Structures are given as structure tokens and as C-alpha cells.
């Protein structure tokens, strides 16, 4: 699976993350409200975000998200490497959007684009969400994510944090709220 595609929708353009995206992405990510209920609430701080950004570049699979109407960077999301077992799966995560793009159709379009691309290669997409991150959990439910009952403890810079696992299968996507 190509984890760094160019994906274009009605409102959004997603393209591979590159080093030159630093300034624009940090301008978005430096808003403390974006991270207020996130498992890493200090990610708005420059040194913390710099580590996150560097890891995204190194790991691959990261995409920069643009608002097509303005050409401005509004956030980022990532594909984690593919697991080939049971028809294949990939994780989508590490997503954040500028608050100016919350509560509307932007997250839905971004996830629809990413899921459509992923389901050309894999049978299942997983999402790990901080158990207490109610905003992200509601967003998962709105796009058809099904809570799997699995969870895991993840070490974060502040403390261990329980993450719950959601999934969308190729079949549930085809009949779900993001189907085209």
C-alpha cells in the first residue's frame, strides 16, 4: 500500500508530509485547545511538536492536509505500516485539524479519502483513540467506527494512557456514513 498518496477531494488536498511543512503545521499545532483533551496535551509546545513532526517524517505515511479553497495547511494525518494478516489492515491516526475546520465536513472528507485509498489494499482500518478523548471518540462514531472492545496502554510523556481501538472494515465502509 502506498502510505503517502496524493488524495484530492471537494474541499481538501492531502499530500505527503515534507520538511518544508514545518512552519505551517506548527502554526496550526501551536493552538493548545487542539490538544486539550488529547493523551499528549503538551503537543502544542514547540519542542514536543518538533519530536512528533520528526517521527512522522522518519516513519513515513504522514500526510499534510490543505484547504483547497484557500491553499492553506489545516492539519495532518498518518497511515501506520500495513499488517498483512487476515486480509490486511492499516492504522489511521495522529490526526489533527485547525479549530477553524472542526465540527464540519472536513474530518469526514479527510477520513473518506484516506479510507477509500486504504480499502484498495486492505480489508480493515484501525484507529487508536485515547480513552478520555471524547471529541475524537465522537468523531470516530460519526464516521462509522465500531469500538472493538480491545484497548492498550500507551506510554506518553506525561503518563501511561489507555487507548481504545475502533475499526472500519471494507464492508462496513461500503454501507456506512462515508460511503459515496
- Helical fraction: 25-40%
Q: What characterizes the major β-sheet? A: 8 strands, mixed
Strand tally: 8
What percent strand?
A: 25-35%
Structural class: alpha+beta
Oligomer status: single chain
CA-atom Rg in angstroms: 15 Å
As residue ranges, the low-confidence spans are: none
User: What value does the average pLDDT take?
Assistant: 93
Helix run count: 5
Descriptive overview:
With 180 residues, the chain is α+β, with helices and mostly antiparallel strands. The protein contains five helices and eight strands, in the order ββααβββαβαββα. A hairpin with a 3-residue loop joins β1 and β2. It is globular. The relative contact order is 0.17. The mean pLDDT is 93.
Concise overview:
The protein is α+β, with helices and mostly antiparallel strands and 180 residues long. Helix content is 28%, strand content 32%.
Layout of strands and helices, then pairs:
Blueprint: E1 7-8, E2 12-16, H1 22-29, H2 46-59, E3 62-67, E4 72-79, E5 89-97, H3 106-118, E6 124-130, H4 134-142, E7 146-155, E8 160-169, H5 170-175
Parallel strand pairs: 5-6
Antiparallel strand pairs: 1-2, 2-3, 3-4, 4-5, 6-8, 7-8
